[in-house]
Amino acid sequence: MKSIVFGLALCALMMGQPVAAPHKPALNKLSKKAASGRSAQRFVPGSYIVELNGQGAVAGVKSASAQMGRIADHRSLMQQHRGRVAKEQSLMRPMLEAKGARVHHSVDIVMNAMMVKYSGRRQDLEALPGVKHVYPVRMLKRHLDRATTVTQVTDVWMKIGGFANAGAA
Predict the structure, then answer these.
(1) Which of 25, 32, 44, 146 could form a disulfide with 137 if both were Cys (CB 3.0 to 4.6 A apart)?
(2) Is 56 helix (H, G, I), strand (E, B) or coil?
(3) Domain count within the chain
């Protein structure tokens, strides 16, 4: 579950989209100190990620390959499982729209989920048959001010000629 959430969060951040917060992580001593100085987590009002009961296409391919006992034709298996997920989502869409939710995105490879705008209560969406869980969308800010230090880009840059020769062919 953590890898799925991390993958979705990474993809959403790269696209500049809000990210789901599936659960509130336990706070250790350091993060408690940091959290005490800031306001509560900010969620995007009326934005949810609705995870359906069926597994994503990758998990389906993985379990199908394991059952076959050998590496199968992954391309055809992936198409098969993406079709299954698309069918599940097409059946869920009218139920969500009947509740007043507007589906604006969906994912099928990493997990089987639909992103919706909904002005009602989250519990109303969770009560629908076929819904595994509903995650509120949390707004995250991108902080890449330390990325160059962490990846040691400056050191590599200095080895190949420094800042003065940046971009030179």
Answers:
(1) 44
(2) coil
(3) 1
Q: Are 111 and 85 in contact (CB under 8 A)?
A: no
Range of the domain at 158: 2-24+40-162
126 contacts 65 by C-beta, under 8 angstroms: no
Q: What is the secondary structure of 104-121 as a DSSP string?
A: EEEE-SS--EEEEE-SS-
Distance CA 40, CA 163 (A): 41
Each residue of 25-60: pLDDT tens digit? 444 444 444 444 444 568 899 999 999 999 998 888
* pLDDT tens profile 127-144: 999 999 999 999 887 776
Phi, psi of 47 (to 5 degrees): -115, 125
Is 168 inside a domain boundary?
no
